[in-house]
Amino acid sequence: MIDKIRNQQEKLDELRNQTSRKLHLDSDGDGITDIEERLKGTSPYSIDTDGDGRTDLEEVISGTNPRINETDKQYSPLASDYLEVELEL
Predict the structure, then answer these.
(1) Distance of alpha carbon 45 from its chain centroid, rounded?
(2) Where are the domains of the chain?
(3) Alpha carbon distance, N-terminus to C-terminus of the chain
(4) What is the spatial distance between Cα 52 and Cα 79, in angstroms, rounded to a whole number?
């Protein structure tokens, strides 16, 4: 009985460790976790989602939108209104 409890505790501990690693995983190494990237709509596998030469983290910190390449287009800093209109069309 005690061995079963220990085995279950070991499995629970491993599950906790895996969950913790997933919460802090940053696949592209840009300083934003994969979970945060998914919430922001950026790619967890690309350090620069919009390809404008600035990392996603640099854009989040500066207040620009890491999903829109602002070097080619003239949008408001976050362009959230534009995105909503564009997606609704």
Answers:
(1) 9
(2) 26-88
(3) 62
(4) 15
